[in-house]
Amino acid sequence: MSTQKLYAGVKLRETRAQFGMTQKLFAERLGISLPYLNQMENNHRPVSTQVVLALAGEFGLDVTELSTGDSERLVSDMREALADPVFADTAPPLADMRLAASNAPALARAFLELHRAYRQTHERLASLDDALGRDETFNANSPWEEVRDFFHYCDNYIDAVDRAAERFAMQDGVRRPPIEYAIETLSKRKFEVKFENSNFLRQRDGNIITLSARENHATQAFQLLHQVALITQNELLEATLDLARFQSETARGIAKIGLANYFAGAALMPYRVFLAAAQETRHDLERLSDMFGASYEQVAHRLSTLQRVGAKGIPFFFVRVDQAGTITKRHSATRLQFARFGGACPLWNVHQAFETPGRFIRQLAETPDGVRYLCLARDVSKTGGSFAAPTRRYAIGLGCEISHARGLVYADDLELGNPRAYQPIGISCRICERKDCHQRSVPPLEHRLTLDPDHRGIQPYNIA
After folding, report:
1. If pLDDT is split at 50, 70 and 90, which confidence band does 215 have?
2. Domain locations in the chain?
3. Considering only CA atoms, which of 178, 83, 121, 198 is closest in space to residue 428?
4. CATH label, 9-66, candidates 3.30.160.60, 1.10.260.40, 3.30.465.10, 1.10.8.80
5. Which of 36, 173, 189, 443 has the smallest C-beta neighbourhood within 10 Å, fewest atoms?
6. What's the pLDDT score for residue 433?
7. pTM of the prediction?
8. pLDDT band at residue 1, thresholds of 50, 70 and 90?
9. For 435-448, what is the HEC assignment?
């Protein structure tokens, strides 16, 4: 068991504000003194076991919410931003970053937003000739990144949308057939659903919804449920978007598509039924895929969203990469955080999935901070539906910290207790601290380099 002290001042203040209590009344309910509460809320003292139990008993708080998951995300993002050469002489120590993430998360996010705007402006200036005449390229923020951060900091779990999808998909504890019930629901609203040999996945023209007959059952069900979300859950989606306060209509539009996709996945795999099945099968993706009529990617993504308060699943990371190693989807409920810029570590098994199509690849990995993970990877190539159509090739990665590995069938027969069985991996070369990596592509930005023309090791430089 970890002996790390728990500082959760921000969460304490949020809980007190949620119940509209003064510090004095809150301290009385927790059975502690007012000065002690004040010290904990300002992260001058760690949260005691007595307070943790009182929060659970008096306020029904899920104690796992006190964990440092969100702070770890902020620290990881700040470390990457501060590795920028512009901060070469002024980058604060790691301890200061952790204090900022714990005590002033809003300030930390504002800094990240400022650095992102700076980076985008710098990149646009570098390609000014190409950008001239295209006003939309000069927007202050990337809508895509803004939406990705929204889901990232929501822990990839949107409670209201998830519960609405569960109510839609279940009747008296029994899961409804997704496609049939979706068609029935749309029919009651005067919509007609057709299946045609088309080059698009889904299209709505007035009251006619057309799906591609070339796609498999899982894709058809997902696309149909996406349309159900847009038609039957519009008020809920719009209310969620209002709360998010996106900076542009483009970001809001992208997020609405993302929320409709979220509803589709949650309706295809309703929370409680899916969580129970995942635990029963020990998170066997192939069995879950058969049970719910979903693709491997849909199942892996859904596993990463099981973060409902009071009924949480195993904290997973989930990522999808293309053949160039670019991350196209990412989320982590673990301490492993993915790089915001550039590709993933080349030593990670997700890249090997392209070499062994149709197979699940397992890997025991250790990051520079000493945390160990069980990693699973598989290719998810998608045919274009005809000989002339291109095949879309991706690989998905799914994993958890090794403390949860026994709950996965993929951990069977692996040497979890053998330190030499773990492959050293990093996050991204530009922020990786390893000095002896044979796959390093660029020097780390946080360290100085020493050069010796008469000596050559693994790399043509030494990391100071």
Report:
1. confident
2. 9-66, 69-140, 143-312, 314-429
3. 83
4. 1.10.260.40
5. 173
6. 75
7. 0.72
8. very low
9. CCCCCCCCCCCCCC
DSSP codes joined into one string, 147-174: HHHHHHHTTT--HHHHHHHHHHHEETTE
**Distance between CA 190 and CA 347 in Å, rounded?**
53
Query: Is residue 319 a contact partner of residue 330, using CB atoms and an 8 Å limit?
Result: yes
- Band the pLDDT of 396: cuts 50, 70, 90: very high
Angle, helices 9-18 vs 34-41, to 10°: value is 120
Residue pLDDT, tens place only, 255-292: 999 999 999 999 999 999 999 999 999 999 999 999 99
The total of other beta-carbon atoms located within 10 Å of residue 32's CB is: 17
- Work out the widest C-alpha separation in the chain, in whole angstroms: 79
Backbone φ, ψ for residue 300 (5° rounding): -60, -45
Interatomic CA distance for residues 136 and 149, integer angstroms: 21
What digits encode the pLDDT tens for the residues 195-214? 998 878 899 999 999 998 88
> For residue 431, how far is the Cα from the chain centroid?
20
Residue 19 CA to residue 203 CA, distance in Å, equals 46
Query: 202 with 195: CB under 8 angstroms?
Result: no
SS3 413: coil
pLDDT tops 60 at residue 134: no
Residue range 344-363: mean pLDDT, rounded: 89
Q: What is the DSSP string of 92-140?
A: PPHHHHHHHHHH-HHHHHHHHHHHHHHHHHHHHHHTHHHHTT-GGGG-S
**314-429: CATH class:** alpha beta
Amino acid sitting at position 438:
H
Return the DSSP state at 312. E
Mean pLDDT lowest among 43-52, 135-144, 172-181: 135-144
Phi and psi for 320 in degrees, rounded to 5? -130, 135
Token digits of residue 410: 């993929």
